[in-house]
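Intended use. Records like the one below are meant for learning the mapping from a protein sequence to its folded structure. Do not use them to infer anything beyond what is encoded.
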Amino acid sequence: MKKITSKIYIALVFIFLYAPIFVLIANSFNKSKSRTVWTGFTLDWYRKLFNNDVILKSLLNTLIVAAIASIISTILGTAAAIGIYNMKKITRSLVINVTYIPIMNSEMVTGVSLMLLFVALHIDLGYMTLIFAHITFCVPYVILNVLPKLRQMNRNLYDAALDLGCSPMQAFRHVVIPEIMPGIVTGFLMSITYSIDDFVISYFTHGSTSQTLPITIYSMTRRKVSPEVNALSAIIFVIVLMVLLLMNIKDLKSSAPGREKKVKHKEAGK
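Structure written out for the chain above:
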């Protein structure tokens, strides 16, 4: 009985989470603009989407900002995490708590404060302010993903590499970086995801020529949801789903040899 109840509960959760997405995808193929009446299958909304210069320009802006901000955030966040890791215990705890502030702080407060900072410094809002704002809220995510990997790393490995004749830079590149690479990759992926998805901070720090996709979609949906937005949302969902599937397949393939070795070792022990 408990198993049946748990399965029903899981099914209801998945329906609650994904039913609206599937309705949106279905509406992206509906000939009618109505969200309740199905009048036939069509790809017209996808054709109009790819001919919409405003959406395509906003998408390009979003990808450029996300790529630049994520790369810079990953470099700065990794360097900051290494610096924090080598601090004394009290100082390290203090800096880590400060690092949590941008994450826990309201996006509204962060966006308004950055806008006021740029205005006070007489900096025109545009690409540079948008990228700087995205770096500001992405760096803490990289730090908090890299720090656990540094804690898991054996400190003696770096010292051993130095004893074997490696320079500090060689030891860092060949020993430390491979050990913390999973945290770096995770931090980068989180940065690019949050950057693409951000609306509030981007709204306060963007210029007239640097609108991102969330801002464009918001301006399009203030009156009524356009079917082109449905088509765009469906494409984004499919791309994210494919990326997740590919990452899971890669993880399964990489972990398969380890599992085979464990099975063989157990069989040999028997």
